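Researcher: Go.
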Amino acid sequence: MKQAFVRARRPEHKRQRREAILAAARDLALESGVRNVSLGGVAAAVGLAKSNIVRYFGTREEIFLELAAEGWTEWGAAVAERLREAHGTEAMVAVLAETLVERPLFCDLLSQTTTTLEHNVSVPAARAFKRTVLEVMAELGRAIVRAHGDLTEQEGYEIAGAAAALAGTLYPAANPPPTLVELYAQDPEIAATCLPFVPTLTRALRALAAGLPALRGDDDEARG
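Model: Structure:
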């Protein structure tokens, strides 16, 4: 709902204003997709002029980059929690795939990160985002090793990164725009080539978990 704001002067009021902007952007993205949300749309949703929005976030991309960082943190916590009860490749891969498919906004943000959201942002915003991702990835690497004792932390790190990267690639294909929805309805042969999200992600992560240990000697030779 559109709100009428007065100028935020106290630190807690500024935090509330930032949270309201993020909440509005989150709601709009869930409704129509990240790529379709403009800075003007976010401003209208919170009852502010665009010039006031940029006092809190320099650009539209910085708003969504912060939401992406929040998504990484939340996903990492969910994966780590579920992996406490998971043992072996199948269970570990299932946790990664299930936690991603349960988070469509996060997958949408992943699909936009390198192509859009990391552009037109300040160095401090980019640094904060990257540090969050690296911290989450490191923790996920350790959690994956606890669930799958045959992997190293570096291999767990790579699997977590691959899961996020594949989710960002597969999500748009699994959620096509209206034109492609119509095309797929008209042409089942073309529709059959659209890769399903969870089965494709699961198969790829299983293959990676099986293949990484076999490459350890090659990696050592390359470094040498």
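Model: Residues 1-57 form a domain with the Arc Repressor Mutant, subunit A fold (CATH 1.10.10.60).
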